[in-house]
Write a sequence for this structure.
């Protein structure tokens, strides 16, 4: 593991690039960067942001869509999901399923349709997937704007972890409270559901919930299990929101465009976002 001051140094470099909207070379091109090293940098970034007054409110999962793994990674294709902390400064709740979103400060922004959950109860360390489902309070449709400080979106998995999980902004639609009955079949329902995404009225893509580690619920369970092996980070807690990864490819967005989503097979309204 790098010494704490080294992790903090790299964390400051990533945060400064984000603040200044500047490209940087992938850290893996500058030195040998392992997944373990990258999470130490992520931990340092969290500490810096908390010290500066930001509030950590949840987690963001990335690369849960196996269909996209071969598209990312220069030396080695992505082989597993990653996660990063979510802070209040980059999360917005959308009223009436429509929102204007500025792209100012967003490097190489792309759009991803996802499903986000809120934990109503803290899951036990050894919780089964069924027990984890019982801990969920609500789910909602979300759109994540992902960004990359690395030119042309070229990086390794460890770089993505160190660069705040490539998270930009999370837009959350109307939350839907989950009943006990709906939780029992949630994994299957979400796996069979689909979402379409359009730009200025033209269909760009469609994807199934099964693309997300077989179901977005499985993605949360993956994160819960991974955190048991990462004692340097707090485990999942009641009150956290968790966004589970894109159902489709991530598409570049530009100012002046309006993107919209629509679901089938799950009672979630779509979202419409106009970029400025």
């Amino acid at each position: 593991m790098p010494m704490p001051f080294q992790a903090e140094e790299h964390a400051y470099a990533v945060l400064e690039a984000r603040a200044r909207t500047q490209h940087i070379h992938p850290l893996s091109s500058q030195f040998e960067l392992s997944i373990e090293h990258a999470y130490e940098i992520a931990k340092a970034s969290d500490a810096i942001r908390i010290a500066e007054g930001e509030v950590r409110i949840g987690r963001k999962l990335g690369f849960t869509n196996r269909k996209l793994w071969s598209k990312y990674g220069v030396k080695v294709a992505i082989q597993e999901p990653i996660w990063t902390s979510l802070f209040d400064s980059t999360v917005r709740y959308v009223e009436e399923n429509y929102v204007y979103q500025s792209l100012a400060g967003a490097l190489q922004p792309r759009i991803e349709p996802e499903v986000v959950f809120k934990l109503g109860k803290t899951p036990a360390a050894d919780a089964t997937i069924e027990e984890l489902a019982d801990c969920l309070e609500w789910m909602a449709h979300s759109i994540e704007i992902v960004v990359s400080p690395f030119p042309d979106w070229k990086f390794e998995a460890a770089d993505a972890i160190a660069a705040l999980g490539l998270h930009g902004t999370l837009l959350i639609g109307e939350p839907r409270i989950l009943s006990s009955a709906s939780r029992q079949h949630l994994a299957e329902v979400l796996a069979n559901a689909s979402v379409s995404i359009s730009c200025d009225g033209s269909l760009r893509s469609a994807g199934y919930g099964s693309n997300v580690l077989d179901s977005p619920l499985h993605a949360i369970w993956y994160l819960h299990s991974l955190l048991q092996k990462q004692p340097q980070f707090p485990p999942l807690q009641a009150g956290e929101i968790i966004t589970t990864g894109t159902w489709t490819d991530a598409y570049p967005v530009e100012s002046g465009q309006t993107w919209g989503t629509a679901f089938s097979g799950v009672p979630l309204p779509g979202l419409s976002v106009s970029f400025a």
About this structure: The radius of gyration is 18 Å. The helical segments are 4-20, 35-51, 129-134, 157-162, 180-184, 186-192, 216-227. Residues 4-20 form the longest helix (17 residues).
